[in-house]
Amino acid sequence: MGNVVSATQTIGNLFGSKVLVKGTGIWLNDSLSYSTFEPKGNPMDVFPGRRKLAGFCPMIVMRDGRPWIAIGTPGGHTILQTVPQMVINMIDFGMDVQRAIAAPRISFVEPDVLAADDGVAESVLGQLSGMGHKIQVRRLGNAHGLTIEYDAKGAPSRYTGGSDPRGEGAAMGLDR
Description:
CATH architecture of the domain at 55-175: 4-Layer Sandwich
Structural class: alpha+beta
Shape: globular
CATH topology of the domain at 55-175: Glutamine Phosphoribosylpyrophosphate, subunit 1, domain 1
Number of strands: 10
Number of helices: 3
Largest sheet: 5 strands, antiparallel
Distance between the termini: 13 Å
Strand order of the largest sheet: 3-4-8-9-10
CATH class of the domain at 55-175: Alpha Beta
């Protein structure tokens, strides 16, 4: 029947810390660079004993005991909010994988900032701003995903891909 993989390359900035562990091919991340120290005591502060926020969330969603959706995105702190928004778009709003990935997103990015991608309507941004949110319009993610359909015998029969119009990449599907 095959395998399904959902993986997120997230080592911080491009090539992470720029340190490659000799003989392994593994780049070390630089996720501590996402820490903020102002205002003092904010949730993103770094201090001894605190674990750093893990910003990965590749997801495989099962339906009827079989893989249905495999989806993920890079994006630092926004990953943990972006992936569930796309899955909610598919499960709760019935969107196909491409529409779910392309739909506008919002994300909490700092203690007092709400990021929105440029697909969020100006009227919504105005309402959020009117509620006291500091809005920052920016790109949220570079998601890719796929869905799998099965034939009457339970074998995979169709793969449909989705690619984020905000980023790089392309999606292709396979009809067996």
